[in-house]
Amino acid sequence: MSVSPVARTPARCRVLPAPDGSDLHPIFSSDTEEALGPDFAPNGRKVAVELSGQGFEAIATVGLAHSNVNEIRRFDSPIGAPIFSPNGRRIAFTHAPGGTSGDSDVYTMRADGSHLRRITHTPGPKSSGLDDWQPLPR
Asked: How many domains are there within the chain?
């Protein structure tokens, strides 16, 4: 089975197993949470998502084989879509502790949610962005 990009729909994160987009099947569904900003792990076995629920946001991984959801870290302030490191050991995301999504910095943590580390220190009402995480050129 080949894995293609993820389509975003409210309260559901779907995987396109065929390159032509056929055979859609949900890997996450909830009436109270949305799975946003999915990113595939380098090994293709799981997807990292931002869960947005009632009064909280969290970063979770969803296993593609059995659709098991593992909430790895919860936040009470805005976060941005998670991105796996090239080796899959860490996850990067934006976070605005105690603030608004317009005032965020980039953070990383281990893929199990431990060892949270702030990477940027953007002063004032500005945000740091995060689009992709690529390995360093050799």
From this structure: 1
Neighbours of 50 (CB within 10 A): 22
Global pTM reads 0.75
- List all residues 6 or more positions away from 100 whose beta carbon is below 8 Å from its beta carbon: 78
Residue 86 lies in a domain: yes
pLDDT of residue 137: 79
CATH no. for residue 32? 2.120.10.30
Distance CA 131, CA 40 (A): 14
The answer as to whether 112 is a domain residue is: yes
The pair of structure tokens assigned to 116 is 């949270």
Beta bridge partners of residue 94, listed in sequence order: 106
Question: In this structure, are residues 47 and 41 in contact, taking their beta carbons and an 8 Å threshold?
Answer: yes
> What residues make up the domain containing 18?
6-118
Q: CA-based angle 12:61:10, to the nearest 5?
A: 15
Give domain status of residue 28, yes or no: yes
| pLDDT tens-place string over residues 87-106 | 999 999 988 877 665 678 88
- Residue written as token pair 């995987």: 15
